[in-house]
């Protein structure tokens, strides 16, 4: 799914030592299903076509193996891993399956469907993982595309710089989505099971919101769409009814939502360290990346015809905007959270 | 996958009462993982895009539910079903996932890969199912496409009417494939777990082989290819190196192979009753069906250019052949086998 172009590459690498340490210290093998005759089950929620998922799964399986060897002596058998790759129905599972590492040490399965609902049987999962996926909402909050609602988001395509009601509609929808996600995972995880989340976010809502380039990149697409509506290429109605189903939380907000779910203890929560040196991709590279991520969404609403012009305009605006010329303006962060399923 | 066009429709319907009866009488809930806190896991091996799989899974889940209610009283909880849909990597899992019944009472997962190997963790599966899939070989036996082998199958594309060595190469490959399939499933199934197989076959090898229309249909494609090579449209080399990776066993042979695996007891084995009245599809309908099944295989070897001509020729030969005018000449059968994983 989608992290900032600055962050996408290094996320797994930056999370690696933390995930390894947490599995070694927090994985409670006594409560896990694998301590009976069962395998050790892992799921990645929002895996896309696997490019960033496979390295993460390798880190998790190797750390779990190490933990089992440490606890049970080097003669104990390696757990039989069963890994579930989840994403929405519209995800390209054919590509995912063809991309599976041939030398993998686990049985791979696809688990299609929205991760805000149940996907796996009760108490069947030992380790849940999700990276750069929980910033996606299940859908655009209905009120923001409704002309008769006080939260109607006309002339904009996201909540940055929009009126308070728009922001609240997004914020409430996000909270509901995360609550549904946690409820489903609490049912699926075994007692003592761990969940590692890597959540795209911003450090605070207090600064001028336009200083966060990640949400602003979407806002910039919005301004291109508004320009095209003014030039008669699109109807204003079309632009007014389009909004991006994405939300960037802050650490305090995420913590509050998680604590409302009684099923988990927060074992660790921190902002992931800057994953490596940030280099500045060209406007063209950034536009190409955003097009790859959002084109499906935009085509669904606007049709294919306007895409080339939209992203031409977008590339030009990006190149001309001083905000995007300095990587230090990139304020998006990744929150790392490790949760443990409380013993029922 | 592929049953005879006569049989494909009615197979699930014909098997329904047998599967229901066997689950009610033979399913040993004491040994099953679901009697602990675990879900009841089912896998369909060779499910294609699900068209014939979904009805079968519904029959199986309903029968298991009924069995649980009968054994444990109507107040006992319904098992939490986890269903694994398996087929080769080249299968269209995107279509399969989009076709999943929206009202299904189970968690669905895809399990990609060849079913002659391991796909699921040890002792994790309660019920295995495979319909019209075990007639596909893992690949064409190498010797039949090898000019230097006594089993070289020149001028033909299958074993019907071919020399003894060709037939033996197919037969040995089939035995190895079924042995691998049984070995993998024996590891995956829990003690006491059941496996229902619906295996395309012929009643006996003793009659003139050309009286079996199903293999002969492939032979007829072969004769079209040979004609095209004679007319210079194809090279003879191309035809000599192409063979269909399909084999139709007989009940006695299948029984012998199964008995060699010590992990299963044969609980029931019979020829499935003629599923409904056989109607005679037109030569065109039969050719269209065969084209849908085999085109991918043929394009891989011969390219796309010759497909229209090949199936034009095939339709004409089929229409002109008296063997295909009478549905009573259709001698293909489906063997039903119910196996139980012996208690380890």
CATH topology of chain A: Rossmann fold
CATH architecture name of chain A: 3-Layer(aba) Sandwich
Low-confidence stretches of chain A: none
Terminal residue distance of chain A: 32 Å
The succession of helices and strands of chain A, N to C, reads HEHEHEEHEHHHEHHE
Mean of pLDDT of chain A: 88
The CATH superfamily of chain A appears as Vaccinia Virus protein VP39
Tally of helical segments of chain A: 9
**E-strand count of chain A:** 7
Radius of gyration of chain A: 21 Å
Secondary structure: helix percent of chain A: 25-40%
Percent range for β-strand residues of chain A: 15-25%
- The CATH class name of chain A reads Alpha Beta
How does the overall form of chain A come out from the CA principal axes?
globular
- Major sheet of chain A: order of its strands? 3-2-1-4-5-7-6
Domain tally of chain A: 1
What is the subunit arrangement here? homodimer
Structural class of chain A: alpha/beta
- Major interchain interface with per-chain residue totals: A-B, 30 and 30 residues
Main sheet makeup of chain A: 7 strands, mixed
Q: How would you sum up this structure, described in words?
A:
Two copies of one chain form a homodimer. With 344 residues, chain A is of the alpha/beta class. Chain A has a single domain (3-154, 163-205, 244-278, 330-341), classed as Rossmann fold. Helix content of chain A is 39%, strand content 17%. Chain A has helices at 11-26, 53-72, 93-99, 164-188, 213-230, 236-240, 251-260, 283-302, 307-320; strands spanning 40-45, 81-87, 106-112, 125-131, 189-201, 264-271, 333-341. A seven-stranded mixed sheet of chain A has the order 3-2-1-4-5-7-6, with helices on both faces. In chain A, β2, α3 and β3 (106-112) form a beta-alpha-beta unit. In chain A, α1 packs parallel to α2, α4 crosses α7 (251-260) and α8 (283-302) packs antiparallel against α9 (307-320). The first copy, chain A, is globular and about 70 Å long. Chain A starts with 10 loop residues before the first helix and ends with a strand. The model of chain A has no long low-confidence stretch (mean pLDDT 88). The interface between A and B is medium-sized, with 30 and 30 residues. Chains A, B: GO terms for molecular function: metal ion binding; methyltransferase activity. Chains A, B: InterPro entries: MeTrfase_7, MeTrfase_capping, SAM-dependent_MTases_sf.
């Amino acid at each position: 799914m989608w992290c900032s172009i600055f962050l996408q590459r290094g996320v797994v690498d930056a999370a690696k030592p933390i995930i390894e340490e947490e599995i070694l210290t927090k994985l409670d093998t006594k409560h896990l299903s694998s301590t009976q005759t069962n395998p050790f089950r892992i799921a990645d929620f929002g895996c896309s076509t696997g490019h960033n998922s496979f390295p993460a799964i390798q880190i998790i399986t190797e750390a779990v193996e190490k933990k089992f060897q440490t606890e049970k002596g080097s003669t104990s058998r390696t757990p039989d891993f069963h890994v579930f790759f989840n994403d929405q129905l519209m995800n390209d599972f054919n590509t995912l399956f063809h991309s599976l590492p041939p030398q993998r040490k686990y049985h791979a399965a696809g688990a299609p469907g929205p991760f805000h609902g149940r996907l796996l049987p009760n108490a069947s999962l030992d380790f849940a993982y999700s990276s750069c996926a929980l910033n996606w909402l299940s859908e655009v909050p209905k009120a923001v595309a409704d002309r008769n609602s006080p939260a109607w988001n006309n002339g904009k395509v996201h909540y940055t710089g929009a009126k308070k009601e728009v922001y609240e509609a997004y914020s409430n929808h996000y909270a509901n989505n995360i609550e549904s996600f946690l409820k489903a995972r609490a049912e699926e995880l075994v007692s003592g099971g761990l969940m590692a989340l890597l959540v795209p976010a911003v450090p605070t809502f207090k600064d001028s919101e336009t200083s966060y380039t990640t949400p602003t990149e979407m806002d910039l697409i919005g301004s291109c769409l508004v320009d095209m509506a003014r030039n008669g290429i699109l109807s204003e109605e079309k632009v007014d009814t389009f909004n991006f189903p994405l939300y960037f939380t802050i650490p305090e907000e995420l913590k509050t939502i998680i604590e409302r779910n009684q099923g988990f203890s927060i074992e660790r929560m921190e902002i992931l360290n800057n994953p490596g040196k940030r280099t500045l991709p060209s406007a063209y590279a950034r536009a190409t990346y955003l097009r790859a991520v959002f084109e499906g969404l935009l085509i669904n609403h606007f049709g294919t015809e306007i895409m080339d012009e939209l992203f031409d305009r977008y590339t030009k605006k990006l190149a001309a905007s001083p905000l995007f010329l300095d990587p230090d303006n990139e304020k998006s962060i990744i929150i790392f959270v490790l949760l443990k399923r409380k013993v029922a």
